[in-house]
């Protein structure tokens, strides 16, 4: 058995279009004259709503408001984001014999709503969202310590689509798996030196079970 930790946006949830749209709406609401584009996300050193706001030229004094307004738009969305093709089957497959957790800069509630919409609530043992204190690396460590212990500690993996996911995995001493279907390019991900790179959800099986 293993502990498999997934990032949410860009790994499970296809939120790119929503992020760009909501980011633009919030910038407009805050009076920030910036045209939001994919590069605002794809070049981030630290993937978070706060960093996204800064990349969109939101003044520091308004960054927290940018975060809250963006998250509220996700919560108020009539239907949760789509799940990447193949990820439903992968979560069901892994959950039958492993522990699954999600560590994200989105809210835990938004993640639970997404999981319920896609019939995946029973597949995920824990969600660590932005509402839980600590950095992503600290939350990965909390998950690792909660679900594995001592000499029997399971193999632990962090599956992410951002450079900061790879770095957080290394900081928390878990195996990093970078996926290329998310918000950041392979070139950007490779800067973190991930332990593995996968190009499709199915590839996760070979990496984790080898």
Tally of alpha and pi helices = 10
Structural class: alpha/beta
Cα-atom radius of gyration: 16 Å
Q: Residue ranges: pLDDT <50 for 5 or more in a row?
A: none
The residue fraction in helices comes out at: 40-55%
CATH topology of the largest domain: Rossmann fold
The largest beta-sheet arranges its strands as 5-4-1-6-7-8
* Name of the top-level CATH class of the largest domain: Alpha Beta
Main sheet? Answer: 6 strands, parallel
How many DSSP-defined strands? 8
Arithmetic mean pLDDT? 94
Q: Care to describe what's here?
A:
The chain is of the alpha/beta class and 210 residues long. The chain is globular, with a radius of gyration of 16 Å. Helix 1 packs across helix 4 (60-76), helix 3 (49-55) packs across helix 4 (60-76) and helix 7 crosses helix 8 (163-171). The chain has two domains: 2-14 and 80-209, Rossmann fold (3-Layer(aba) Sandwich); 16-76. It is built from ten helices and eight strands. The protein has a six-stranded parallel β-sheet, with helices on both faces. Strands 2-3 form a two-stranded antiparallel sheet. The chain has helices spanning 16-30, 39-42, 49-55, 60-76, 87-95, 108-117, 136-147, 163-171, 186-190, 203-209; strands at 2-6, 13-14, 82-83, 99-103, 126-128, 155-160, 175-179, 196-198. The chain starts with a strand and ends with a helix.
């Amino acid at each position: 058995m293993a502990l498999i930790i997934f990032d949410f946006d860009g790994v499970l949830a296809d939120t790119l279009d929503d992020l760009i749209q909501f980011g633009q709406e919030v910038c407009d609401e805050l009076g920030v004259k910036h045209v939001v584009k994919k590069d605002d996300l794809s070049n981030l050193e630290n993937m978070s709503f706060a960093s996204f706001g800064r990349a969109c030229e939101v003044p520091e004094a308004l960054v927290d408001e940018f975060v809250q307004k963006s998250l509220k738009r996700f919560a108020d969305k009539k239907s949760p984001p789509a799940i990447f093709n193949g990820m439903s089957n992968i979560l069901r497959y892994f959950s039958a014999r492993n522990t699954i957790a999600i560590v994200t800069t989105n809210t835990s509630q938004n993640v639970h709503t997404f999981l319920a919409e896609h019939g995946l609530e029973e597949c995920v043992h824990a969600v660590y969202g932005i509402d839980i204190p600590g950095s992503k690396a600290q939350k990965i460590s909390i998950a690792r310590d909660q679900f594995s212990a001592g000499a029997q500690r399971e193999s632990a993996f962090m599956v992410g689509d951002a450079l900061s996911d790879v770095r957080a995995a290394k900081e928390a001493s878990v195996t990093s798996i970078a996926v290329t279907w998310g918000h950041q390019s392979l070139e950007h991900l490779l800067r973190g030196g991930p332990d593995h790179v996968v190009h499709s959800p199915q590839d996760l099986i070979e990496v984790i079970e080898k």
